[in-house]
């Protein structure tokens, strides 16, 4: 058993300094991390890859950062993968809590803001969401297929940051 571990340790460079890792060792680490990440994302939920809200994007950024350390050797290999699993489980727990507790959902996912009602812009809310009139016009053309603000009954900056439109 010790001989097997010694072989794996050499193959993956578990005890090597990051600068001493070979191309093969980094490649093998990358393959293992890829498979482990795929399993983590499946354990988490499909939505975590959708980046629908900053809540989902934060998971991806931190997960990528933690797991990249397992590949480049700047942190312990198995500890980094374990940390990734913990992050995915935490994301899933928060998503579960947000589903059942609306206040928590607003805290971690945000809430939509109405920026147009009955063809009238709410400039205060637009400023709060950093949406210029030019941004609104562009999204109106692309999403609502109109350039006439009077045709818009409601426009909201959704939790994802996208602007949705309901025409009159």
Report on the architecture of this protein.
- The protein is α+β, with helices and mostly antiparallel strands and about 170 residues long.
- The chain folds into 2 domains: about 1-105, no CATH class; about 110-165, CRO Repressor (2-Layer Sandwich), CATH 3.30.240.20.
- Helices cover about 60% and strands about 10% of the residues.
- It has helices at about 1-10, 25-45, 55-70, 75-100, 100-110, 125-130, 135-145; strands at about 115, 120, 150-155, 165.
- Strands 2-1-3-4 form a 4-stranded antiparallel sheet.
- The chain is elongated, with a radius of gyration of 23 Å.
- It starts with a helix and ends with a strand.
- Backbone structural class: alpha+beta
Total strands: the figure is 4
* Major β-sheet annotation: 4 strands, antiparallel
Topology pattern, helix = H, strand = E? HHHHHEEHHEE
Rg, rounded, reads 23 Å
Low-confidence spans: none
Beta-strand percentage range: 5-15%
Termini separation comes to 72 Å
Q: Give the integer mean of the pLDDT values.
A: 90
Approximate helicity band: 55-70%
User: Based on CA inertia axes, which overall geometry fits?
Assistant: elongated
Keywords for this structure?
elongated; 168 residues; CRO Repressor; alpha+beta; 7 helices; 4-stranded antiparallel sheet
């Amino acid at each position: 058993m010790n001989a097997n571990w010694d072989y794996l340790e050499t193959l993956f460079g578990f005890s090597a300094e990051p600068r001493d890792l070979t191309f093969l060792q980094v490649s093998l680490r990358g393959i293992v991390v890829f498979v482990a990440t795929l399993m983590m994302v499946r354990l988490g939920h499909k939505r975590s890859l959708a980046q629908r809200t900053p809540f989902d994007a934060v998971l991806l950024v931190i997960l990528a950062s933690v797991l990249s350390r397992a590949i480049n050797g700047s942190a312990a290999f198995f500890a980094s993968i374990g940390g990734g699993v913990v992050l995915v489980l935490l994301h899933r727990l928060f998503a579960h809590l947000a589903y059942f507790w609306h206040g928590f959902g607003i805290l971690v996912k945000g809430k939509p803001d109405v920026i147009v009602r009955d063809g009238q812009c709410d400039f205060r809310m637009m400023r709060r969401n950093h949406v210029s009139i030019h941004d609104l016009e562009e999204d109106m053309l692309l999403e609502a297929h109109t350039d006439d603000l009077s045709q818009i009954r409601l426009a909201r900056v959704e939790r994802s940051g996208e602007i949705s439109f309901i025409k009159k």
